[in-house]
Predict the structure of Radical SAM core domain-containing protein.
Amino acid sequence: MAGNSGRPLRPLSCGVIASEEGNDVPGGALGLGSVGSGRSMFAIAEELPRGEGHPGVEKAYLDITGGAPELNDGFRRLVEGATALRESQKRELTIIDRCNLTVLLEPGQETLPNFLAEHKVHVIASLPSYEAEQTDKQRGRKVFERSVQGLRILNQHGYGEGIGLHLDLVFNPPGPFLPPQQCKLQKQYKKELGDAYGIKFDRGLGLVRWFEDV
């Protein structure tokens, strides 16, 4: 299985962060640890901020990240636990998957797109450029082609189609550079990917990296 860099994808531990927003509770991250640490997925989901005992909490987020968090054995159990918690408490909980688009093409992941859609997981995926040459230069040979295939699969399952399944793309420039203005970047991404490949998505996000002299 090949990842963005051309090296095999491995099911490493994936990071889990919960955050909350509200009138009385300042937005903040609650580190819930690693899914690969052997903790119960439902135990992690139970630690998400609740309405009771958390006055003023209006929104909560479960942000799952990692090289390819979907390959972690606990990924789906974590999402299922969070979904059950959201439904049982009738609350606003956004489950976010920082998705490696190429993982959607890996053997054994054929049911992943449907799983994400069924649990209304918000997908945020990194795509360095809408040009194949630049993306492959940064991520590895044929990564752009495989990423486009992954985006098409997500579109086929309703992502980016305006039906409540959110798909965002992240532009992360290599090196110590600022991304273009976000609204212009989003417009250009939508035009280029839409015209050339029929790809749809909701938002284009610019990622700013912080570099320090050492």
